[in-house]
Every structure is written in C-alpha cells, then in structure tokens.
Amino acid sequence: MQALVEFPIKRSYHDAPVLVAVFAHPDDETFSAGGVLAGHALAGWSVKLVCATAGERATNGRGALSDHEFKTLRLHELTMAIEALGVDALFLLDWGDGDIPQRNDQESVAELLKIMKQTAPVVVITFGPDGISGHPDHVALHRLTTEAFRQYARSAHPNDISPQLYYVTASAAIPLCCKDRENTPASLPPTVRMDIQAGWERKRAAMEAYVSQQHILQSLQNNPPGWQSREELFHRAYPPVIEENKKNA
Ligand SMILES: [Zn+2]
User: Where is coiled-coil annotated (predicted)?
Assistant: First the structure.
C-alpha cells in the first residue's frame, strides 16, 4: 500500500513508524482520513489518534439519551471505530465539544506537543485552515496542531527523520453534509492523492460503528461519486510541496 512517507518497516512493534492524527470529535477521523489511517495500520505503521473532545454536543443521534448517556455512547462508538481502523492508541483530551476556540491556546498547544514528543510521529495529520466544514472547533484545532507541530519539528527526532505535517482537504469521499457551513475559511489545494482501496473495508466498518451518526454515512451513500471514491486528498504543509517547475526555475 502507498504510504505518506516511505519508511523502512521493521518487525518490532516498537520500531514501527508512527502516524498521529489530531481531530476534534469522534467520527472526524473516520470520515475525513479513515482510509489512510487504516491503510497505514495495515502496512505496519503505529497509528494513534488524538481526539480533542467527546463530541457530546452533537445535535444528531441524541434521541432520548441524557447528556451523560450520549457522551458515553459517542465514546463507545469512537472506541469501536478506531478498533476497526487499527488505531493502537487513543488520546482523548475531553476539552469540551464546542469549547476549543475559547480555551487557552498555550495550554492546548502544550498538551498536543507533549503527545507528539511522547509518541514521536513521522507523520501528523490534522484539519486544514477550512476545517473541512468550517466548524470552529476544527478551525481552531488546525491552528493549535500546526503550532504544536512547528515546535515538535524543531526538537530532536528518532533516526533524524524529519516529521511531516498533512492537512485533510475536501474530496468526493467526504460526505456532503460536512461541507455546508457558511463563512468557511478558504481551503488549501490537495497536493497528495492517497489510494485508500487497501483500507476501504476497515473505513467502511468504522463508518458503520457510528450508529448515532448514520446520517453522515447515508449522505455519503446517497452520493455515488463519493461512495465509490477510493481516494483521500491531503495538502502537505510541512515540508511544503515544491512544484517541479518552481524547483527548476
Ligand atoms: Zn468534527
């Protein structure tokens, strides 16, 4: 399977290259990058997820559940989904659904940086400036993760491999219901196209694990080009992709 960074895969689990995905709510990771997360896990990477909130203020799928019951359900679904994807560690920050922009930025960056230093990722994936949907939590997390990554990249790395930062960008494979917010900041162009055929069945199982959020899956299934797409698109933010013609100019 195609990997974001070519890296020699060793036999020992402890030597596996690490990919850390940083997202805001349960299901963000699956619907925006689930194929790539699963594909890397299948290829022998250690894939870890930072989920900044429990998604406890989602309006859909709440039914008659109390706040506490709904939060428990969201976390149960997240656990099932990451198991399907092959994610081997979850860092649940529980910053409060909807509260990320109001938090102290320095404290948030410090928490993310601590995880990066602890897990030593070769690849970090998060939202781009548009946050896919313009959700304020997504947009804030883009900013915070980028700053934490900038500090992490300046520190020492295992084997002197420079870490790389990728942003998810809108693609056919991302459900239409995630793209309809007004005043969404401009998105960056995709510079990396990832074939997700290898991880597709795992991504599908993860999407189905979000029983309370089936409207998202239905939105994708109702859009044949999206449902049939086996591609997730990314913008490599660091190191920046230099176009061939610019390189040769
Ligand atoms: Zn979200």
Answer: none
Distance 97 CA to ligand 1 centre (A): 9
> Quick one: pLDDT at residue 249?
44
Q: Return the SS3 of 29.
A: helix
> What are the extents of the domains in the chain?
16-248
**The listed CATH number (3.40.1580.10, 3.30.390.10, 3.40.50.10320, 2.60.120.10) that belongs to domain 16-248:** 3.40.50.10320
Rounded to the nearest angstrom, the distance between the alpha carbon of 233 and the centre of ligand 1 is 17
pTM score > 0.90 for this model?
yes
Q: What's the burial of 246, exposed, middle or buried (CB within 10 Å: 0-12/13-18/19+)? A: exposed
Q: Measure 28 CA to ligand 1 centroid, in angstroms.
A: 5
On the question of pLDDT at 222 being above 70, the answer is yes
Structure tokens at 73: 């359900």
Look-up of token digits 């109702």: 222
Q: In what order do the strands lie in the sheet with 164-168?
A: 89-92, 46-51, 18-23, 123-127, 164-168, 231-238, 192-195
Q: How many CB atoms lie within 10 A of CB 151?
A: 14
